[in-house]
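Narrative of activities, Objective 1.

The group set out to show that a structural description can be obtained from nothing but a protein's sequence at a throughput compatible with the screening campaign. Below is one input-output pair from the validation batch, recorded exactly as produced.
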Amino acid sequence: MMHSSLFVFDIETVPDIDVLPQLTGETAPDPETGRKMLEDYHLEITSGRNGFPRQPFHKVVAISFLRATIQRDGDLEMYEIEELRSGGDLTSEEKDLVNGFFAYCGKLYPRLVSFNGRGFDLPVLKYRAMKHGVTARWLHQTSNKWENYTSRYAPNWHCDLAEVLSDYGASARTKMNEVCAALDLPGKTGVDGSKVSDMFDNGEIDGIRRYCETDVLNTYLLYLRHALHTGLTDHDGYNHAINLTVGWLEERAGDIPAYQEFLDAWRASSGGSFNVL
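Output recorded for this entry:
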């Protein structure tokens, strides 16, 4: 299938402490205690190795994405950013966020791009979709063994950069911030995932959404570099996509401080070139 758009996405979550009565028979007196109880449960079942909640036990609080059109010139692709935003609004319930994600992608049939999306983001979204009765037939339809969204080795359908860059586990898997540092890209600016629960408790939903959007930007920039390396695009196509992205951010940075912060970090990390190669 010749996809006509990229859909680069990321989610932010908090531990779902509402599962505790069903899971452990206990009720948490407050969110902080509940998260500790959920962590303790996971430490117990992993013999102390990992207290991070498994995918079903995450509540989605933000879904952000970047949509770019794919234009073709022979065998080469060119990418043009069309929108970068978060789904729903500041008052949206989880069900609405999850439903919006699956409904939007079901209309686009895009090439999905993520960083660890196959290992975390999509499994979480699928569990929460089942919780809320959200359907996503498009995600599970298969024309053959290789060309579909569920195939691990189909980066034209879902390019999970964490998997692709490690050759599907043949080499060490790295964190996105580590890859960005190695390639002189901005990486995380101001917030990291460990702060999301506290931000959620404090009602800082807009801050979470903006943080998630900058993670999406980093993922897109990594994808552009990957597309250049693999020959999906050439230097002209890469530089064109970078210049369009810089211009797109500059137009909006005055209204969105997180975008200005990202631009400043990108300018600093790249020595002012914004990684035009």
